[in-house]
Amino acid sequence: MRIICLENNFISLKLFPDLGAKIASIFYKPQSFEVLFRTTEYKLPKYGDPFENYDTSGIDEMFPNVDKGKYPFEEYFGEILPDHGELWSIPWNCYKKNNNIHCEVISPKFNYIFKRTIHLEKNKIFLAYSVKNLSNNIFRGFWTFHGLIAIDENSEIILNVKKVINVHKSKFLGNVENICSYPEYNNYRLNKFLPKSSKNTEKFYLIDKVTSAGLTLNNNKLLYTIEFPEVPYLGIWKNECGFKNQFNCALEPSNGFYDSLEIAKKYQKFLTFQPFEEKKWNFRIILNNWTIQKS
Predict the structure, then answer these.
(1) 170: part of which helix (H) or strand (E)?
(2) How many domains does the chain have?
(3) One-letter-per-residue 3-state SS of 113-142
(4) What DSSP assignment string belongs to 60-109?
(5) pTM for the model
């Protein structure tokens, strides 16, 4: 597959235009460390394929949904929303210009154009997004950043909140939509990671609005921080080898709550695009050397 690269003295970034403009690598040069969870095999999916049948690695853009379902509003009522959205499984138009990577794709079904521009400045990655409705119909949906990060058993989630909502049935966090204290609930540490032998997964969303979150990597020598001041919600996926025997974590800002458009409709938390309306937002990734904070 084609690869487009962006590089400076701190970061080397690589993406695959034909695989949903997936960011396949973020390499932090000061520590010679690959930030993203990676795989050794990539293959091209077909539109609507199950997400788990493919590489489940790197950074994909989820829009206009995450969980497979049906469009629940009158304008496209009953249309199938593919697993993990439309965009990860189709080729994008991507090109490099003036030290930026410009990426765009038009929906095969819902008549919108999704754009993303990537820019590097020292140890920071800037991502600018826009979605424009190209039709006379209202369109509704939400974006979720799906970035799988290469954690280890010493990694820690850096987050200042007190409660989260569980969205994935769990032996530790209970039933779906159970409210759990953070960072600890029933002697389970939500901000830490169980050993790989645990074969566990967790998914929860924050209840309160935050504008940033962090994750320590490379045995606590590197801090991965995301900043998303214009995006209202944050989900966290922890995969302790419970899914596909992979060990990774995703901090997932979203402008919908949560995962399926049907649930987002229930909570009335999604984006509404009027005919020909365009919405924009920005997102940042910051990589810093880190010294573990002793408590």
Answers:
(1) none
(2) 1
(3) EEEEEEEEECCEEEEEEEEEECCCCCEEEC
(4) EEE-S-SS-EE--SGGGTT-EE-TT-SGGGS--EEEEETTEEEEEEE-SS
(5) 0.96
> pLDDT 10s per residue in the chain (295 long)?
899 999 999 999 999 999 999 999 999 999 999 999 999 889 999 999 999 999 999 999 999 999 999 999 999 999 999 999 999 999 999 999 999 999 999 999 999 999 999 999 999 999 999 999 999 999 999 999 999 999 999 999 999 999 999 999 999 999 999 999 999 999 999 999 999 999 999 999 999 999 999 999 999 999 999 999 999 999 999 999 999 999 999 999 999 999 999 999 999 999 999 999 999 999 999 999 998 654 4
- Residues contacting residue 158 through CB under 8 Å, at least 6 positions apart: 191, 213, 214, 215, 216, 223, 225
In a domain, 259, yes or no: yes
Phi and psi, residue 144, nearest 5°: -135, 130
- Give the C-alpha separation, 51 to 227, whole Å: 26
Report d(CA 209, CA 162) in Å as an integer. Answer: 11
The residues with which 140 forms a beta bridge, in sequence order, are 272
Q: Is residue 172 part of a domain?
A: no
Range of the domain at 53: 4-154+217-288
Cα–Cα distance, 22 to 24 (Å, whole number): 6
Instruction: Give Cβ neighbours of residue 150 (< 8 Å, ≥ 6 apart).
Output: 34, 35, 36, 37, 38, 217, 248
Q: Indicate the length of the chain as a whole number.
A: 295
- Amino acid sitting at position 218: N
Would you say residue 92 lies in a domain? yes
∠ at Cα 292 (196, 159), nearest 5°? 75
